[in-house]
Write a structure and sequence with these properties.
Elements: H1 6-11, H2 13-19, H3 22-32, E1 52-57, H4 61-72, E2 76-82, H5 90-100, E3 105-107, H6 110-115, E4 121-124, H7 131-140, E5 144-147, H8 155-167, E6 172-174, H9 182-192, E7 199-207, H10 227-231, H11 263-274, E8 282-288, E9 301-307, E10 312-318, E11 330-336, E12 339-343, E13 348-353, E14 358-364, H12 369-379, H13 389-408, E15 412-415, E16 420-421, H14 425-428
Helix pairs in contact: 3-4, 3-5, 4-5, 7-8, 8-13, 9-11, 11-13
The protein binds nicotinamide-adenine-dinucleotide.
Length: 445
Amino acid sequence: MTPIDRRQFLQNSAALAASLSAFEVAATRARAEEPAAQPAKDSKKVGPNDQIRVAVIGVKGRGMEHVASYLKLKDARITTICDVDKRVIGPATRAINLVYGSEPKYVQDLRKVMDDPEIDAVSIATPNHWHSLAAIWACQAGKDVYVEKPVSHNIFEGRKAVEAARKYNKIVQTGTQCRSQKGIQDAMAFLHSGKLGQIYMAKGLCYKPRGSIGHKPDGPVPEGLDYDLWTGPAELKPFNPNKLHYNWHWVWNTGNGDLGNQGIHQMDLARWGLGKMEFPKTVMSAGGRFGYKDDGETPNTLTTDFEFDDALLQFEVRGLPTNDELGVKIGDIFYGTEGVLAITSYTDWQAYLGPKLEKGPGGKGGGDHFANFLQAVRSRDAKSLNADIEEGHLSSAYCHLGNIAYKLGRKLHINPSTESFVDDAQADALLTRKYRQGFEVPTVV
Ligand SMILES: NC(=O)c1ccc[n+]([C@@H]2O[C@H](COP(=O)([O-])OP(=O)(O)OC[C@H]3O[C@@H](n4cnc5c(N)ncnc54)[C@H](O)[C@@H]3O)[C@@H](O)[C@H]2O)c1
């Protein structure tokens, strides 16, 4: 069928608004108003299909944003959506139908996506415990991958995802989209130009108040949900409705707390700004889940320090009401011998120079992380990715290091070349997990 045309779309807006959420309408309107796709510049590098055929895996919260993003990009076509929970696929199905004039194929089991030769790329927006294994399976099946952050649930599997990308020569983008925003790229160029002197400290701030999730008893698995497959590589526990969609972030079996949720975006920028492409020498953390008692396990208040030979990276999660610092609540502050630079959002930055910290250069600007992924898929140049899987692995690993130090309650010494701890079997045991049969992350990918 032909894609919806702009006039028809606008005429139908009232009816659409009644059947779709405001978000879905906005996403489809953006697509309908876009100009026609440009022909590829280098036809030799473009595959036989003009459009890159994408399967979105996990289509609830963030997955709907994946759907909306691909719908806006005319050189991609979402052919398939996949979710273990049949109850959630309505909005994605409707949005795709609205734009393409036909519904996507739906599959419940992601292994069918991997087996489908008519899918070029997968876009993974499942919970964290599935990210690395799904990415590895996709690489092994010959597909390019956009995988949400953190790219792993533990350090071992993140490194395996990098190895799979390299072994199968696949394009693997991490969902840390700040890396594609012009404002952030400019801030990093300013930092790396030396105009702030030597950067001796970076601070990542994740000051995002979140309420209690309360308590709910275990209960029956709802009809339409394949809970065994939802659990996948994690430990199979009795079903609890309070630990399913989204709230899995706050349970160690499936999530990584806010450090590995919101925090990883700011961790990624802190590491990028400091120019660190390896693990730190030491890590220590302190905190707790304060202010309420609920079914969550992860800390809502956490400070973590990472030591390097020439700099300190401090990260702070504050999940309860708090003040800002230099206008930053969710962002980063870099401290140099010649001044300070604040990243105040996903797109904005401001430098303060000299001993009096007078206002210096600043800026803002957006970008399209999904478009960057598709361009790399076409060019087959992983180096053109703004957030290659190696970057994603390192930033995810820093979050896992912070959580391991929190769990053990002591300073940990790290061997960066082996990505493990120094003479510390207890800490090393937390580098990986016991995988369920059928869902093992392979040691050799
Ligand atoms: N980059 C960003 O800005 C950003 C923003 C929000 C979330 N995220 C990331 O996106 C991911 C999803 O977050 P969310 O808030 O949408 O979570 P969610 O729990 O609301 O949705 C996850 C969906 O994945 C489905 N799912 C689980 N296992 C699956 C499997 N094996 N195969 C297919 N589907 C499966 C679930 O049924 C659910 O519908 C998380 O890893 C999160 O960190 C990234």
